């Protein structure tokens, strides 16, 4: 059915449908496809279909199904809410059921439509005859969809139509009668006359008052008009008379009565008249109605008669016509059937074509989907690789940053320390690097993170984040340092710390074993406080010897004899139906008196939905009938018949109001009863639980065998879990590709359990010495799994060695991997075969095999009641087993191996005799080998256990197991957790304090060095003395300078000056040394070392406290084990002695004074520092304090150990006294109590050994820790002292060196003064004696020298603008800082020039500009800049420096020569040249320098170095291309631009259009000629190809008659022209159908002959007609004009040494490099139009060359290009002096 639905959906939806359950459910659950099906059948229209949305959103899916539910109701398909929820959940079964209903309802409509179409088709095929009967096709109206509210009206449509028609008829009749009645009334009114007045007296006139009184009386006493009888009237009359007598006779009464009588008479007259009138009218109306109806009846009767006569006449004619039409119909039907068959054949062929097309489309979609998937996989792979690379990049990036930070910090400390960095800091940085923490300090100073934040008023979030990051960084260091300390890693390695330490010493061994015992204590207590999650308990069943499963048992009746055979072994046969009935009966029995439970199996079968459930219920019914019969029989036998008239009790078993407590079996029966009543199937868990309860109910059994259950692996998995408490692996977790893999996956499977305490059941100090809880691999609860397989001929079956998916179920392969699978073939099961099956159930694997009497009891087989052989099943008696996989046998038990051997021997009848013998021998040998191997292994294990002596705490030590009270265990565990937490926290905080102290060393040393540097270099009055002496000496008269006495006097004064300067130097040295001693006396180092020593003493105190608490924990733990009670005695901790600064911190000292010990340490330490003595282990004053504390701590630990050893000895003596009481014959003491005492004694002795090892190990551990802390303290103090000592020694050396340099400077000053005195000259230069240096500054003169004064008197040029090279170098360095790449804003450059000209940096090097520049007005600087650089926003300051050099600009030839030289040295073509090579090359401006002029040569050399540095790109490398481009300048900027292009291409360029006009024009003409020739060649090629193709088509495909077209000959050939006109007559083109491919313009035959004739000339073969004509003309005139051309005109030839055109790329490169501010910096067209102008010019000129090159002469002639080159002065050679003169003027 699924295939039919699939084909139906594919046909309706025109696309393939996938039928997998998950995909089908997910695709169909939104209802979009169902709506498409309804639309295809026109159940809904397009408007309704629009409301359905294809989506995975649950809200949209609900909206879709809300509409679909109403539409499906129209076609009588109702969906329940449960089914609707299942459909929206994507369940395939519910969707499949819905589509099946759709198919049944819609396919019927489809077939009806098909029949209508066929009938319509047949009716169209029949020939129509012209007669008076007309047959019209009634168009079918589409069925209108309505909602549920309108459906009742549609169902009553006919009745409503009838009511409407009836209403219309009644309305018409009513209107007619009303109209007729209105006419009658009108006639009566016309004929009516005034009523006849009866004769009589006139009424009396009554006054108005009387009238009013009468009216009131009438209203008060109204008259009642009734129809009285005659007797009643007489009585009324009599009463009236009597009343009248009683009334007072008055006039008013008479008047009233008269008035009353008159009214009565009037009324009576009017009523009579109306009655008469009514009778008259009704009579006349009746007469008229009768006459009208009679006339109508006559008319209708006449019409009917007339119609009948006409119809009879027509029927006669119609019968004759019908006969003829029938004949025609027969003929037409035959023709229609033939056409219909043909049409069906065509439709079938069309259907096949559609199917093929669908298949092809499906293949195309598959290919497309495959390509899409491949593309997606590629994208996913690319994205994966991208993210992987990004991840690796981030890792590498972070790593590189960390390495950079490490290198930076290393270099920073190297610079600070000016020596090797201590290993302590390097190790800390490495730790930070490995912990992925910042190497640099985040918070500076770090002590701020220890401040109390509660005191602060406000904390900025940024500061809080910085503190948090720094705390995280320190926390990482704390954890790392504690791990290193705890594990004895660097720098806490014992070999490195403790001298002469042996790693393999006895102490380390005891420490290791003690830690393991401590781990046993800790993890035992933690397991008590944080227990492991409990395992699921197995079923509460005895340990049965036999537990078997049999599948494939064909008949229930076989179980009865099987139970008979197994009774001897007390093995119970369990059937699934028996277990279910047992629980149901339990439920029914326990509910008696409350609820009547009806176990109606027929009702269960009727309600059940699945066939499997029905089969189980049938078996339950049969089982129940058998049980009920047996129970009735047993009851009748026991109690006999029930006597008559005996009243049975009706008391309920349970009071209804009370809550009924069901047993487990009854509760399971309750669930089963509910499931069976509702038609649901019984779950696997329920069945397994009922089997367990059924087995529990059986008494005195030793085994079970479950029949025909489980049948699937899922059922087996739940059954195994129920019985054993361990669930087998899920099927998806097992690898079933091979039996080895399956067995391995079962063995490796471990169930993952959620352990909430896994993370906290861990200690950070000790490891768990217990063996890890290793879960055993899954083992089956059952001992045998037997699969029975029926076969028709057992001889055809072979032994199956490999279990595969084709020949077995997964449950078979699973049990085969476990080694308990047995399979058997059978044709019939009789007694012998049943006995063999029972043997496997029993598990009789021993040899020799036992007889059936031994197994099942005597004569049981002979007396066995077994079904007779007349049964259908009994055909043969051969049984053949299916042997398991040989690879699985290796994992079987020894007993299972023997069973398989017996099985093989039993089946030997099937195999050949030779194979039987060999198999038997092999199996016998293997059994003997197994027994021998097992005996040897047992003997070896006994020897090894006796020889080995295991110490407590070793790997194989079995720890004593004596239970501890849970309350005590939890308390001890909590206590240890607090000890461990406190110990780790205290040690980490102490390590942090030590680290902070060590980190203060480098900053402090840097601080004292910087401070002393400032003190050493303080200013002095030496310069004042020197300046005053120089002034006195220079003011002395020159005439007296050469006198010896004067010289002697000056020498004496110089000596006095020297002595004064010496005194100043001595004073400065003494002051610096005093400041150094003051720093030492501040005792910062002593205080820091004191804090460090106290910190290490705190570490020792922490270790001592931990050791004492550990001793106490051992004592509490083992005492609680041995005595079942917690101990009462507690240990107290001892405090170590620390160093206190103030006396109030210690007892016995004067309050407020300095501590005596601290004072002694300070004096000793200060003496060592002042004497510059290096502190080591021998002279360190802190060593004595540390050693005393260490000795005290070790003594406390030793005493504690000794005290506990005595406690242990007492406990051991008490335990040794325990002796198990000997059992006597008359004593009633059980063996269990004696065994408990013996076990307790053994465990107690183990606990004593563990306790002893634990306290010894703890003692050695604490000793090692304290000694390690002692030596680590020594090492850190040594490192701290060495750094401080080195800093102070460096300061002393700096003081000494500075003093020596000052003395030497004074000596040099005095020597210089003495030389001046001896020479008799003044000292114009400034003499500077600052710090420790002596400087003579020639740039700063005290007075004007005589030589300069003399030159000032002569004529001099004060307007010089020549720069010195040094000035240009300084200017270059300043400009390079502002604009490193050379390009600067023009406005910024103007400001810089103004600053340099006005202010000029006046220092020792002199002004930056020549004197001539000072005459320039700063306001004229912008004008000068404009003259130099033109109108531009940016400038290149390197051009300014080139102008300032005032050197000659080169020509193009000189530039190309220099370029060639440079390229010869640039072998790699990198456009770079080294300094030496550049200096060696001779430049163009060096030819004019006089070689004998040294100054010129020096300036030339300096200029070349300056130019090299100006264009230097890297160290010792210059870009010579940029250098040459900078000198491409000329008076004509166009020439300069051409020079730049020449420099780029290496060839001189012709840029003048006047000089190159003829050559360029010739080249352009040649290019045009080549283009024309190419166009002609292309045209001729096209024509030639058309001709060839036309001829080929005409030759191959057919013949055509073509109109001969007229071809006009050349103008000169007039005869040919006339001939062509004479023969050119037009005709119509007659072609065959195959010649339609010919072109419309066809060459004539005559043209083809001409082409053939011209083919004799080789040169003109491939030339088109225009070229041919030109060639012919030249050939005709050649003799006349040949000599004239040679004499008069010479064609210009291009010069090979010149370049006329360059590529556009070269021009762009030159413009962008030389004028970047026009083409790179401002590329927008709105800002500058230069780019667009150049592009426009190039677009016009690129057509002149073949490769779009540009002729330079034409390019520079463009107006825009010429304007750009003249506007920007980049290529203009400028004379700086002339421009300055223009500005100054």
Give me some keywords for this one.
58 helices, mainly alpha, three-stranded antiparallel beta sheet, 1785 residues, 4% strand
Number of helices: 58
Helix-strand category: mainly alpha
- Alpha carbon gap, first and last residue: 113 Å
How large is the radius of gyration? 64 Å
Shape: extended
Q: Major sheet: order of its strands?
A: 2-3-1-4-5-6
**Average pLDDT for all residues:** 75
Strand content range:
under 5%
Helix content: 55-70%
* Low-confidence spans: 125-133, 193-203, 635-657, 869-947, 1145-1151, 1222-1232, 1346-1359, 1598-1607, 1610-1688
Give the biggest beta sheet: 6 strands, mixed
How many strand units? 19
What does this structure look like?
The structure is a single chain. The protein has 1785 residues and is mainly alpha-helical. Helix content is 62%, strand content 4%. The strands form 7 sheets. Strands 2-3-1-4-5-6 form a 6-stranded mixed beta sheet, with helices on both faces. Strands 11-13-12 form a 3-stranded antiparallel beta sheet. The chain starts with a helix and ends with a helix. About 14% of the residues have low confidence.
Summarize the entry for a quick read.
The chain is mainly alpha-helical and 1785 residues long. A six-stranded mixed β-sheet has the order 2-3-1-4-5-6, sandwiched between helices. Strands 11-13-12 form a three-stranded antiparallel β-sheet.
Blueprint of the fold:
Layout: H1 2-13, H2 21-28, H3 32-40, H4 46-49, H5 58-74, H6 81-88, H7 92-125, H8 151-155, H9 157-191, H10 208-220, H11 230-246, H12 251-417, H13 423-434, H14 461-486, H15 494-497, H16 506-529, E1 546-551, H17 559-566, E2 571-575, H18 576-590, H19 601-607, H20 611-639, H21 664-678, H22 684-697, E3 703-707, H23 713-724, H24 739-748, E4 784-790, H25 810-818, E5 821-826, H26 831-842, H27 852-856, E6 879-882, H28 886-889, H29 894-906, H30 913-947, H31 966-999, H32 1001-1016, H33 1022-1035, H34 1044-1081, H35 1084-1123, H36 1156-1170, H37 1183-1216, H38 1231-1319, E7 1325-1330, E8 1333-1341, H39 1346-1353, H40 1365-1378, E9 1383-1385, H41 1386-1398, H42 1421-1429, E10 1434-1436, H43 1437-1445, H44 1452-1465, E11 1472-1474, H45 1475-1480, H46 1494-1510, E12 1512-1514, E13 1517-1519, H47 1520-1526, H48 1533-1545, E14 1548-1549, H49 1553-1597, E15 1600-1601, H50 1614-1623, E16 1630-1631, H51 1645-1654, H52 1665-1688, E17 1698-1699, E18 1701-1702, H53 1704-1714, H54 1716-1719, H55 1730-1741, E19 1750-1751, H56 1752-1756, H57 1759-1767, H58 1776-1784
Parallel strand pairs: 1-3, 1-4, 2-3, 4-5, 14-17
Antiparallel strand pairs: 5-6, 7-8, 9-10, 11-13, 12-13, 15-16, 18-19
Helix pairs in contact: 12-13, 14-31, 16-31, 16-38, 17-26, 18-20, 18-21, 18-22, 19-20, 21-22, 22-23, 24-25, 29-30, 31-35, 32-34, 32-38, 33-34, 34-38, 35-37, 35-38, 37-38, 40-43, 40-46, 42-58
